[in-house]
Design a protein that fits this description.
single chain; mainly alpha; MetI-like fold; about 0% strand
Length: about 300
């Protein structure tokens, strides 16, 4: 019987082990931590259901959310109108679904543009320092001195007509300072790290250093604050619409629906007019906040959760 050399077997085995070993990236570790947070995972599922419902609104209802019908004013729930009608004869279910579109679009768009402004200014202040940092921080301090809600109400009151785009711009232009300070603080901690100094030593451009080195290491605070900002902006839109300073009628939003149903008679006798939009705001904001908490735990290297 011919015996095969054992060395080849050991060598192949060793090579196989080496080939099979793969490092775990920070994003994989964060994902693993996030998936262990059951509340955050359930919130993702619920939020996907809500987003799917508002996107598929035309398939879930045949009624227009803005068309009035004086013959159907404040009708109780029926087969044709499951949530009844409002004081203008509009179908509450269609307004709930299409209003969810507007509320989520406002929350996401305001968050997106606030991220662009806040991350850009925070990156410039944290990376360059000196006069650039001083100018941006003084502008930030000036904006923080002005009450956010009062500033929004003043701008809305000055404008003759408020559209969704204008409303998003107002929120983004008045709410970037907090994110700017957070990003600046994160960059100040990273600026003196050895890998940053090494990138500067080999002649990497400022833009490349910011995008390739600073941004990936600050992605945790950015993502977490983005989710929390979106929840905050949905509440702001609903609150301003409720008091008549948000998206004007007949455009449906969850805040408009609650404002439409604020009379004592409707509150007592027609809970189907205000309870669904109220619950929609509550559930959506809670889900986004739980997702934000899960992301914060996932990206926090000092988290007590083990990967």
């Amino acid at each position: 019987m011919e015996l095969k050399p054992q060395g080849n077997i050991d060598g192949n085995s060793a090579v196989g082990v080496k080939k099979g070993v793969r490092g775990t990236s920070p994003s994989q570790i964060a994902l693993r931590r996030f998936l262990k947070n059951k509340l955050a995972v359930v919130s993702v599922v619920v939020l996907i259901v809500i987003i799917s419902a508002v996107i598929c609104a035309p398939f879930l209802t045949d009624h227009s959310p803005t068309k009035t019908n004086l013959m159907l004013i404040e009708r109780p729930p029926s087969d044709d109108h499951p949530l009844g009608t409002d004081s203008s004869g509009r179908d509450n279910l269609s307004r709930l679904l299409y209003g969810g579109r507007v509320s989520l679009i406002v929350g996401f768009s305001a968050m997106f543009f606030t991220l662009i402004i806040g991350v850009t200014l925070g990156s410039l202040a944290g990376y360059y320092g000196g006069k650039v940092d001083a100018i941006i921080m003084r502008l930030t301090d000036l904006m923080l001195m002005l009450p956010f809600l009062v500033l929004c109400l003043t701008i809305v009151a000055i404008l003759e007509k408020v559209t969704i785009g204008i409303f998003v711009a107002i929120i983004a232009l008045t709410s970037w300072p907090n994110l700017t300070r957070i990003i600046r603080g994160a960059y100040l901690k990273l600026r003196e790290q050895e890998f940053i100094q090494g990138a500067k030593a080999i002649g990497a451009s400022d833009l490349r250093i910011i995008l390739k080195h600073f941004m990936p290491n600050a992605i945790g605070p950015i993502v977490v604050n983005a989710t929390l900002m979106m929840a905050t902006y949905i509440i702001i839109e609903s609150a301003l619409s409720f008091i008549g300073f948000g998206i004007p009628q007949p455009t449906p939003t969850w805040g408009n629906m609650i404002s439409e149903a604020q009379s004592i008679r409707v509150l007592r006798n027609s809970p189907e007019a205000w309870l669904p939009p109220g619950l929609a705001i509550l559930v959506t904001v809670l889900c986004i906040n739980f997702i934000g908490d899960g992301l914060r735990d996932a990206f926090d290297p000092k988290s007590s959760r083990r990967s």
